[in-house]
Amino acid sequence: MASFLRFLLVVLLVLALGGLIFLITWDPPPPTRPVEIMIPDEKLPQ
Question: Is pTM, for the whole model, over 0.70?
Fold first, then answer.
């Protein structure tokens, strides 16, 4: 049972490190369309 838990821990650690490395090296593409946000007049400084 202890060897199974050790194996499970190693698998989870490898998956977490792989995900972290993927997020660090991933270069997502920039948005292709402009982003327009409507700001109500009440939120603008007077």
Answer: no
